[in-house]
Amino acid sequence: MQPAKKMPTHDILVATPLTEKEKEQGVKPFWTKIGAAWSLPDGSGYSLVLQALPLDGRMVMKVPTAKEDDRPDPRDDPRYGQSDYQTRSNGR
Question: DSSP labels for 14-44?
């Protein structure tokens, strides 16, 4: 019998870069989850699993606060055009 897999202790996120104009207008960056982290049993660090790497090399590791289903859908971000996925499938 294998031990139950533990949920990650942290999410690893990257923010969309904003232009100076967007910053002045108070636009908030859109955060994308790119991985997860688990605390090591002895508390000396973390085990990381990354599914992507940011182009600018900056990542944030945060304690998960919401279920993935509760996070905003990037396809709803007005800064991006309507995707082929939305036009072909009429939504999600």
Answer: EEPP--HHHHHTTPPPPEEEEEEEEE-TTSS
